[in-house]
Design brief:
Blueprint: H1 2-11, H2 19-29, H3 34-56, H4 58-69, H5 78-124, H6 129-133, H7 137-179, H8 181-228, H9 230-235, H10 239-292, H11 297-338, E1 350-356, E2 362-364, E3 371-377, E4 383-387, E5 392-399, E6 408-415, E7 420-424, H12 431-438, E8 446-451, E9 454-455, H13 461-466, E10 468-471, E11 480-481, H14 482-487, H15 495-504, H16 508-512, E12 521-522, H17 531-545, E13 549-553, H18 561-575, E14 579-583, E15 595-600, E16 603-608, H19 610-616, H20 619-630
Parallel strand pairs: 7-14, 7-15, 10-13, 13-14
Antiparallel strand pairs: 1-2, 1-3, 3-4, 5-6, 5-8, 8-9, 11-12, 15-16
Length: 631
């Protein structure tokens, strides 16, 4: 839960660092909708102008018709009706303009967010593994959920509302000045009081809203953690403890939410009452002016209506201000992720299908032949082809995930083509790090890794990884059918090839016993399958990839010994002719390896086959005999 809390601290309500720059960048995503935005601005102007103009019609309505008609027996209402109709037409135009810009903003908002999400997801695929190691899943997911949702609210509502409110306030203020500068002075005085109150209450509510969001993050993180760990909770009978912990977190959320919403809820009624007081003061002042200075009733009626139109937009802007700050801060987090440096690839050697000529020369083939070659471009525009054999060599490799912490210290090892190399050692010895470096998830600062004599830094990352099949201890299956999950290893594999790969991994039997066989849908990362079945599918996925090098990272850790024995023959077929790296804690699975490398604290302490290492009576012997004693 600590990781979730840390991500919430980073992502919750903050003021944007550079609001103007962020707004400009948001606008850049709206460029395809420039015509829409021009229409939106026009429609907002029409909407505001129509409301101001229609209100101004109250002046002639009172002065020319209503007041003169008082006491008349049969007044001529034709001009009065015409004026009413004109007002109705103006209001109708305003309503249509409002509807139009709201509809246009739906298109602009959804289209802009679509572009941002596409770019965000696409860019995420280019980021190095190191980025995902330093950011929690919850933190990254918030970019697609919380931040984009806040941005949606701002684009669809806040921006337009504030723009409309600013135009309304400006237009109404000019109209009021034209009607009565003296009464306008009273309005400005009340406005200063209202702004002061908004500022005070806004700062209070903002503080507690930040605390509320922090509390929400803690509660959500705790719930997420407990859902995943329900079995552990029940095994150790900690139901009462977790309920007590949740009550404490929920109580903190209650207090923060109560305080935040208390101040937020006070704002609207206070502003509403102030507007009524403002209205009353203006009405009294206007009445006095009418009696003493002859200020006409029509101007007073229009002015009083304008006072209502003046205070409402100010209240609306104050309410929208915090949401805009939240959205801009969220947008900055989105753009921060978009600005992350993508994974660099300076490689120029590519992996191609190849075939051998009658003379035994290697040349590129447009068909899948089962033979792979490294294509090395030459300065003259030609290319040199080297057959992929799977010769892997580490030369004095030094590596650490952090600068001051070395994980591998001067690792030198080799795997000849077709050899099975096993890595054993205690947890944290550096076994998985070796395979991470081979995949170039990380680049080595010192030393070199050679693949068929080619420095792997010279090989394009996609081609390098395509030459490696990998089965991880933590199996991940995607939503889809069993067939689709196995085919993920090679998307152009036929159904027959997928089934053959499943047979090779000894997964075909259990798959055919599933409700829909190979068409059975896998959901929730394969929760409808056992852990062993998930790993068998992962092994089949590696088999269908048919890569020259195979990496098995605890690939059989979740398979019982009987099932493991059944798939050994299939695995032997899969490993035939391939260089294989095996990481295993179950030492019985590595006895037939050509070489067993024992790692401790990032260094190789022993190397040899099973018999040699047992005779040496060293670290491997201690691990192996300890395992037998435990068994």
């Amino acid at each position: 839960m600590r990781g979730h809390e840390r991500s919430m601290r980073n992502m919750n309500i903050m003021k944007p660092k550079n609001a103007l720059k962020t707004i400009k960048r948001i606008i850049s995503y709206m460029k395809p909708y420039r015509a829409h935005m021009v229409l939106v601005v026009i429609c907002v102007l029409i909407s505001v102008a129509s409301n101001i103009a229609a209100t101004y019609f109250l002046k002639p309505l009172f002065n020319r018709y209503i007041i003169p008609y008082i006491g008349q027996q049969n007044p001529d209402l034709s001009e009065f009706i015409k004026t009413i109709l004109v007002m109705g037409i103006i209001y109708t135009i305003g309503v249509l303009a409002t509807y139009t810009y709201n509809r246009l903003m739906v298109t602009v908002t959804t289209g802009t967010l679509y572009r941002i999400r596409i770019e965000l997801f696409s860019h995420m695929q280019t980021l190095p593994i190191r980025f995902f190691d330093t950011h929690t899943h919850g933190e990254l997911m918030s970019r697609y959920t919380n931040d984009t949702d806040a941005l949606r609210n701002m684009l669809s509502q806040s921006f337009v509302n504030i723009f409309q409110s600013m135009l309304t306030v400006s237009g109404v203020f000019i109209a009021m000045l034209l009607l009565s500068p003296l009464l306008t002075g009273i309005v400005v005085l009340m406005l200063v009081i209202m702004v002061f109150i908004i500022k005070k209450l806004g700062s209070k509510s903002g503080k507690f809203f930040r605390e509320q969001q922090m509390a929400v993050g803690k509660v959500n993180g705790y719930i997420e953690e407990l859902i995943e760990g329900q079995k552990v909770v029940k095994v150790f009978c900690h139901e009462n403890k977790v309920k007590a912990d949740f009550d404490k977190l929920n109580g903190e959320l209650f207090e923060a939410a109560k305080q935040a919403n208390t101040f937020a809820s006070m704002l609207r009624p206070i502003m509403g009452n102030l507007s009524y007081i403002h209205y009353s003061i203006t009405a009294i002042a206007g009445a006095v002016m009418s009696i003493t200075t002859g200020f006409d009733i029509g101007s007073l009626a229009s002015f009083l209506q304008y006072t209502r139109s003046f205070s409402q937009p100010i209240t609306m802007m104050s309410e929208q201000f915090n949401s805009i700050l939240m959205a801009l801060a969220g947008a900055e987090r989105i753009f921060d992720m978009l600005d992350q440096e993508p994974e660099t690839d300076e490689g120029f050697v590519s992996l191609v299908n190849a075939e051998k000529t009658e003379k035994g020369e290697i040349r590129e083939s447009s068909k899948r032949t089962g033979i792979w070659a490294w294509k090395i471009p030459k300065d003259d525009g030609g290319a040199e082809y080297i057959e992929v054999k799977g010769d892997i060599r580490f030369n004095n490799v030094v590596f650490g995930y952090e600068k001051d912490k070395t994980v591998l210290s001067g690792i030198t090892l080799y795997a000849k083509p077709g050899q099975k190399i096993a890595f054993v050692g205690s947890t944290g010895a550096g076994k998985t790090t070796v395979t991470n470096l081979l995949n170039r998830f990380y680049d080595v600062p010192e030393g070199a890794i050679l693949y068929d004599g080619i420095p792997i830094n010279n090989i394009k990352k996609k081609d390098l990884r395509r030459s490696l099949s990998m089965v991880l201890q933590d199996t991940h299956l995607f939503s889809g059918t069993v067939m689709e999950n196995i085919r993920y290893g090679r998307l152009d594999a036929t159904d027959e090839e997928v089934i053959e790969a499943a047979k090779l991994a000894n997964a075909d039997s259990f798959i055919r016993h599933l409700p829909q066989g190979y068409d059975t849908l896998i959901t929730a990362d394969g929760m409808n399958l056992s852990q062993g079945q998930r790993q068998l599918i992962a092994i089949a996925r590696a088999a269908v990839a048919d890569s020259p090098v195979l990496i098995l990272d605890e690939a059989t850790s979740s398979i019982d010994t009987r099932t493991e024995a059944l798939i050994e023959k299939g695995m032997d077929k899969l490993m035939e002719g391939r260089t294989v790296f095996v990481i295993a804690h179950r030492l019985s699975t590595v006895r037939n390896a050509n070489a067993i490398i024992v790692l401790e604290n990032g260094s190789i302490v022993e190397r040899g086959d099973h018999e040699d290492l047992i005779k040496q009576g060293g670290r491997y012997y201690q691990l192996y005999t300890g395992l037998l004693e435990l068994a």
